[in-house]
Automatic annotation (TrEMBL):
GO molecular function annotations of the record: transmembrane transporter activity
Name by which UniProt lists this protein: Threonine/serine exporter family protein
Transmembrane segments: 117-135, 141-158, 165-184, 196-217, 229-249, 269-286, 293-311, 317-336, 343-361, 381-399
Protein localization: Cell membrane
Taxonomic path: Bacteria, Bacillati, Actinomycetota, Actinomycetes, Mycobacteriales
Superkingdom per UniProt: Bacteria
GO annotations of cellular component type: plasma membrane
One Pfam family this sequence matches: ThrE
UniProt keyword annotations, A-Z: Cell membrane, Membrane, Transmembrane, Transmembrane helix
Major localization class: membrane
Amino acid sequence: MNDAHPSANEVLDLTTRLAQLLLAGGFEGTLGLDRCLCGVAAAYGYRADVSVIAESAFIEIDGATRVVTNTPDIPQLDQVSAFKPWLTEVLAGELSFTRARHRLEDIAAMPQPYKPWARVAGVVLFSVGFGISIQPTWQEIWVTGLLGILVGLIKVGTERNDRAAWLAPLASSTLVAVVVLAAAERGWVHGGTVELMIPVLFVFIPGDSITMSVIEIAVGRLTAGAARLVQAMATLGALAFGPLLAAALLRVDRGEIYDSVVAPTLGPWSGWIGWSIFTVGVLLVFGMKRSDFPWVLGMVLGTYAVQLVAVRLFSDVAGTFVAAALMAAACLMLGHRPSLPPAYVLYLAPFFVLTPGAHGLRGLEVLAGGTVQGVEDVGGMFILIVAIALGMLTAFTLLPATITERYGRPDPAPLLRRR
């Protein structure tokens, strides 16, 4: 191989491998992926024709074609952080082809930065932190803490087995519902059972995927957006089906799956503490770099503060729109700086603060319990999804293109050697 002038097949191999890795982290959406792949090919002298949908990519370089598929999921965040300087150097022409290929494989081979036990602990913190934010009571803390251990063991234990991984949401929701319904029947817990189930299942809720699907549809990526939306709704359906199985196993009335408000027993500081604990959970569960944590925590608490103020000034929907727009703008501007974490790493955790998926799961579970309120919650989920998607699109539209270009140059033509 001539490192200065790699062959078309070699560049196609690199581009195909890159597409495979980007698709695996496809919860980020397909926007910009074609530009990324074309830019990398152009950096090494070739024009690429690329078509990307949610789970596959078609790539053609110099008459040769490849089709690659992968199942989209939330990417390992330290890999996303490592990918940012790699791509920057490639597009700037600062990385030889051989080094680019080797470094990309090094990124793909990066192990989980935290031990399995730490990631189980991360699910516990993830659950407790979110639980405090929606129901600030001591009961919520100890229930979500105990159930978070069970869900963490299931999630971490099934991740290396593709055949079992899809069962994790259903198995977790069924087990959680069995424990909560049995405890409620014996009087060990009080209040709505749904509020005790959702926080520990929050780690499976595809809220970011749902919103990205709406954004993709809004900008004309109909196939990718529709496929992503169906996948996300299937996951929500599996999570909502678990309580029905649990009720059948325990032979309790489905009406025990209900939502009700419990008087808070924690102070007004609980939301801030809860989201801080939650962010530590995100660090451990999704493999974030420790050096990225302060920036992400700042974005989480900032988004929470903006949402509190905006909701009080306007309404739930308008406040969520404002919070989403400002969150997206801040993440894009910070992520544009070379020394700071990528935008996706910055906005994944704050996105959970907006919680559109939690509204949908609450609605489906309450609806499964036979309560009409569930229809309102499901409808509310879609309204919030639209508010978040439009807020993010507004930020993307108003910011300069130099900031919003995730993958560098929009036009790779100046890099090309005509073949």
